């Protein structure tokens, strides 16, 4: 079947919308749409409702900037977590990666990206001010820099260190079990867990 020629405009519109998703080509998009057409109306309605509610009701934790169903996420509001340790990550996906290791019991701070001039992302586009405010208010003993081991990740680590080293807080980084050039979300759970356990003091290279 020529996927550029449809007998139904409704089908074509649906395929076009699915094809806008990352990693979804038009062939995969067509398969997904045809799969939904074979489902009961109730199942498709449940999927649609879940997506609409997600977009309308999801919010970001006012403390760590992780996604949440309420103003403060379940991690930040959990009294059993170590509230003196903060793991700084690039994205929400990295929070999930670290949580999956089951080796970390502290809190998080989601930057919303890393410094990348080539992509037009500078310090003002990320949540550095909120991180520094959190540290300056006291009660934080350790900041763990858990960013991608890329040039952009290293640049962001240096920037954070320069902003926070004036405060009485220990700044550590993941042990180099995560290969240079790797993004955190692609590291396997065992390697990432060991890198967290064996984290080292962050040292500025001359």
Order of helices and strands: HHHEEEHEHEHEHE
| Euclidean distance between termini CA atoms | 61 Å
CATH architecture annotation name of the largest domain: 3-Layer(aba) Sandwich
Helix content: 25-40%
Radius of gyration: 21 Å
Low-confidence stretches: none
Oligomeric nature of the chains: single chain
Mean pLDDT, as a whole number? Answer: 89
| CATH topology group of the largest domain | Dna Topoisomerase Vi A Subunit, Chain: A, domain 2
Structurally, the number of domains stands at 2
Please, could you describe this protein's structure?
- With 206 residues, the chain is of the alpha/beta class.
- The chain has two domains: 9-57, RecR Domain 1 (Helicase, Ruva Protein, domain 3, Orthogonal Bundle); 79-201, Dna Topoisomerase Vi A Subunit, Chain: A, domain 2 (3-Layer(aba) Sandwich).
- It has seven helices and seven strands.
- The chain has helices spanning 9-18, 26-38, 41-57, 92-101, 128-136, 151-164, 189-197; strands spanning 59-60, 67-68, 82-89, 106-110, 142-145, 170-173, 200-201.
- A hairpin with a 6-residue loop joins β1 and β2 (67-68).
- It is elongated and about 65 Å long.
- The N and C termini lie far apart (61 Å).
- The relative contact order is 0.10.
Concise synopsis of the structure shown:
The chain has seven helices and seven strands, in the order αααβββαβαβαβαβ. It is an alpha/beta fold and 206 residues long.
Supply database-style keywords:
single chain, 2 domains, 40% helix, elongated, Dna Topoisomerase Vi A Subunit, Chain: A, domain 2, alpha/beta, 206 residues, five-stranded mixed β-sheet, two-stranded antiparallel sheet, Helicase, Ruva Protein, domain 3
């Amino acid at each position: 079947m020529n996927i550029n020629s449809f007998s139904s405009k409704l089908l074509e519109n649906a395929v076009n919308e699915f094809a806008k998703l990352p990693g979804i080509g038009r062939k995969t998009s067509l398969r997904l749409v045809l799969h939904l057409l074979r489902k009961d109306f109730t199942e498709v309605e449940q999927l649609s409702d879940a997506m609409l509610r997600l977009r309308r009701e999801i919010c970001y934790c006012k403390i760590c900037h992780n996604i949440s169903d309420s103003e403060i996420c379940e991690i930040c509001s959990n009294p059993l977590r170590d509230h003196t340790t903060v793991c700084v990550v690039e994205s929400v996906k990295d929070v999930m990666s670290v949580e999956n290791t089951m080796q970390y019991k502290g809190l998080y701070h989601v930057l919303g990206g890393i410094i990348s001039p080539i992509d037009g992302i500078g310090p003002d586009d990320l949540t550095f001010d909120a991180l520094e405010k959190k540290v300056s208010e006291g009660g934080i003993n350790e900041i763990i820099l858990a960013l991608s081991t890329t040039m952009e990740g290293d640049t962001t680590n240096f920037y954070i260190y320069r902003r926070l080293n004036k405060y009485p807080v220990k700044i550590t980084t993941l042990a180099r079990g995560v290969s240079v050039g790797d993004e955190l979300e692609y590291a396997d759970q065992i390697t990432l867990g060991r890198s967290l356990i064996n984290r080292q003091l962050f040292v500025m290279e001359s």
